[in-house]
Amino acid sequence: MKNLFKLSKIILLLLTFFTVLSCSDDKSDSPFIEESKNILEIAVNEPDLSNLVTALGLADGNLGSLLVGGEYTLLAPNNFAFDLFLTNNGFASLEDVPSDLLSKILLNHVISGTVNSTALTSAVSGYATTNATNMDGDNLSLYFNTSSGLKFNGVSKLIKADLFAINGIVHVIDKVIGLPTVVTFVTADPNFSTLASALTRDDLTSDFVSILSTGSTTYPAPFTVFAPINEAFNGLLTELDIPSLLDIDEPTLDAVLKYHVVGGANVLVSDLTDNLTITTLGGDITANSTGGPSLTDSTGRVSEIITSNIQANNGVIHAINKVILP
């Protein structure tokens, strides 16, 4: 009976100890402790996010206040990421970055809702929508690749995951995710790897990469790009009975690629109507919406839009399943 009484006292002491410990202010990796803070407070309490906290305070409209409420997923660049961003863009400090630009870049790291790392890594690579917008108010897209770890827009890797907050979650990343151009998504998304190779072929007269990287306020931006997926190019090679894109002469390839680009317009799939004439850099094609959005070239070949509204800062991409021919 004495031993039983002694054991009961020990258990009571242990329970008391762990109760006090769980209520203490000591830092802990426990989700319970993290969930007592909002996203901004988590950032403030992470030493490696001090540059982010400074940036939030400098951003147009005091962006930090956004992360106190609502429900968000924050991709949080660490201190080195911001140092690298400043160096690569010729800024001496965060104070030198225009506040409106800084705000837009930071919003490009904010996704509405709570998305934990398990949900991301278990998903097929694809697109999310950020809280940053283009000139027309359309939300920018974010490409996440899960094929080898987790990478965003082809530049930024996840290095610390799942800091839970009362209003969402924080993931620490190793690079600042810049405002994407249409080139960003063509190069980041492996479904467009053949298109990327075509656009960068050494003998091309047109410098498509430079053209499609034009800033959103400078003509011929914004762009609408109808981007053939890899299977579309494979189908073209079969259709033309040639072994590779290298067998297409330069004038023909240049003309074909121009038929996939509209200059001066950010055309969303909701803007397409039946028998709508679309003027590309190469010539006119016809859009239809009935039965699913599609494009018809001058030879009557139909390309279906299979992924729509991949929104960059300087334009929009629609993935298509067949190459458009002049």
Fraction in beta strands: 15-25%
Largest sheet: 7 strands, mixed
Count of helical stretches: 12
| Category by helix and strand content | alpha+beta
The chain-level mean pLDDT equals 90
Provide the gyration radius in Å: 25 Å
- How much helix, percentage-wise, in residues? 25-40%
Q: How many runs of DSSP E, i.e. beta strands?
A: 14
Tertiary shape:
elongated
Poorly predicted spans: 1-33
Q: What's the SSE pattern?
A: HHHHEHHEHEEEEEHHHEHHEEEEEE
Distance between the termini: 95 Å
Strand order of the largest sheet: 2-1-7-6-5-4-3
Task: Give a concise summary.
This protein is of the alpha+beta class and 326 residues long.
Supply the key terms.
alpha+beta, 7-stranded mixed beta sheet, elongated, 326 residues, 14 strands, single chain
What does this protein structure show overall?
This protein is α+β, with helices and mostly antiparallel strands and 326 residues long. The chain is built from 12 helices and 14 strands. The protein has helices at 2-22, 31-34, 39-45, 50-58, 79-88, 99-107, 117-121, 182-188, 193-199, 208-212, 230-240, 250-258; strands at 72-77, 110-112, 126-133, 139-145, 151-152, 156-165, 168-173, 223-228, 261-263, 276-279, 284-288, 294-296, 302-312, 315-320. It has a 7-stranded mixed sheet with strand order 2-1-7-6-5-4-3, sandwiched between helices. Strands 9-8-14-13-12-11-10 form a 7-stranded mixed sheet. A hairpin with a 5-residue loop joins strand 4 (139-145) and strand 5. The protein starts with a helix and ends in a 6-residue tail after the last strand. 37% of the residues are buried.
